[in-house]
């Protein structure tokens, strides 16, 4: 089965705290791509990162970092020193290489609330 | 560049009415997609296109039709609207030059549709 699970429905933290959003995926393919998108309250979908299955290096971009572990089929997203503007729904998505019909397979999303 | 644009932003339809959701991209992308997002859920693929004149069904195509006469435009047609089609509709595009899945998809701002 091709599936993405984001078990955390909603997370609420106080500004400046660090927060990690979990993403666990299932796929038959050995080649695949993983994505994170942000959906702020305004509703648009903003691309954050794309990672292929052969690149297990962690990625850091400013306050954002991503931890990809093939052994546990996880691609977790950490926000360091969170800010109110980080409040959004965050989606993890999977694109299998061979069996996808080109679609992204989406998790249900994690709603992140950053309190001032 | 405007990226991916969608019109209208919001529409209310009566049961049985029909309408066309417009999508245009100015990035010269070959691939285009239509997704729907139901409340509290990730996105599901309705239709996709790998180039002008070529379209194919996604996961949830029933009740919808598409056409792709130009590279830029990918309209989605709803015939005989039903309450189950109440959703937010997103159009997306990707370069498509590699001919393979896994490319980053860039999304329009969405169309919120309410069928009463």
Structure description:
The complex is a heterodimer of chains A (116) and B (116). Chain A has 116 residues and is an all-beta fold. Chain A has strands at 3-5, 10-14, 19-21, 24-26, 32-39, 46-52, 59-61, 64-69, 74-79, 88-96, 105-106, 110-115. Chain A has one domain (3-115): Immunoglobulins (Immunoglobulin-like). Chain B contains no helices and eleven strands. Chain B has strands at 4-7, 10-13, 19-25, 31-37, 43-51, 54-57, 64-66, 76-78, 87-94, 106-107, 111-115.
List descriptors:
A: 116 residues; Immunoglobulin-like; 4-stranded antiparallel β-sheet; 53% strand; globular; B: 116 residues; mainly beta; 7-stranded mixed β-sheet; 0% helix; 48% strand
User: What percent of residues of chain A adopt helix (DSSP H or I)?
Assistant: under 10%
The secondary structure category of chain A is mainly beta
CATH H-level homologous superfamily name of chain A: Immunoglobulins
Query: What's the SSE pattern of chain A?
Result: EEEEEEEEEEEE
CATH superfamily of chain B: Immunoglobulins
Report mean pLDDT of chain B, rounded to a whole number: 92
What's the CATH first level of chain B?
Mainly Beta
Largest interface: A-B, 27 and 28 residues
Distance between the termini of chain A: 40 Å
Radius of gyration of chain B: 13 Å
Major sheet details of chain A: 6 strands, mixed
Top CATH class of chain A: Mainly Beta
Which series of helices and strands of chain B comes N to C?
EEEEEEEEEEE
Distance between the termini of chain B: 36 Å
Summarize the structure.
The complex is a heterodimer of chains A (116) and B (116). Chain A has 116 residues and is mainly beta. Chain A has strands at residues 3-5, 10-14, 19-21, 24-26, 32-39, 46-52, 59-61, 64-69, 74-79, 88-96, 105-106, 110-115.
Indicate the topology.
The complex is a heterodimer of chains A (116) and B (116).
Chain A lengths: L2 E3 L4 E5 L4 E3 L2 E3 L5 E8 L6 E7 L6 E3 L2 E6 L4 E6 L8 E9 L8 E2 L3 E6 L1
Parallel strand pairs in A: 2-12
Antiparallel strand pairs in A: 1-4, 3-9, 5-6, 5-10, 7-8, 8-9, 10-11, 10-12
Chain B lengths: L3 E4 L2 E4 L5 E7 L5 E7 L5 E9 L2 E4 L6 E3 L9 E3 L8 E8 L11 E2 L3 E5 L1
Parallel strand pairs in B: 2-11
Antiparallel strand pairs in B: 1-3, 3-8, 4-5, 4-9, 5-6, 7-8, 9-10, 9-11
């Amino acid at each position: 089965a091709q599936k993405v699970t984001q078990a955390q429905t909603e997370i609420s933290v106080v500004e400046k705290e660090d927060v990690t959003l979990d993403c666990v995926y299932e796929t038959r393919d050995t080649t695949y791509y993983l994505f994170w998108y942000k959906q702020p309250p305004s509703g648009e979908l903003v691309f954050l990162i794309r990672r292929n299955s052969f690149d297990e290096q962690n990625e850091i971009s400013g306050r954002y970092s991503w931890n990809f572990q093939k052994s546990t089929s996880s691609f977790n997203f950490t926000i360091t020193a969170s800010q109110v503007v980080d409040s959004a729904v965050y989606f993890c998505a999977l694109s299998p290489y061979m069996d996808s019909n080109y679609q992204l397979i989406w998790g249900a999303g994690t709603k992140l609330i950053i309190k001032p | 560049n405007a990226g991916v644009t969608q019109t209208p932003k919001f529409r209310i339809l009566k049961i049985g009415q029909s309408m066309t959701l417009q999508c245009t991209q100015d990035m010269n992308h070959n691939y285009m997609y239509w997704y729907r997002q139901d409340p509290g859920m990730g996105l599901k693929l309705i239709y996709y296109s790998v180039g002008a004149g070529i379209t194919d069904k996604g996961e949830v195509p029933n009740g919808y039709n598409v056409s792709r006469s130009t590279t830029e435009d990918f309209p989605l047609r709803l015939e005989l609207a039903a309450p189950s089609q109440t959703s937010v509709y997103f159009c997306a595009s990707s370069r498509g030059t590699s001919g393979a899945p896994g490319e980053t998809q860039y999304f329009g701002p969405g169309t919120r549709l309410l069928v009463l």
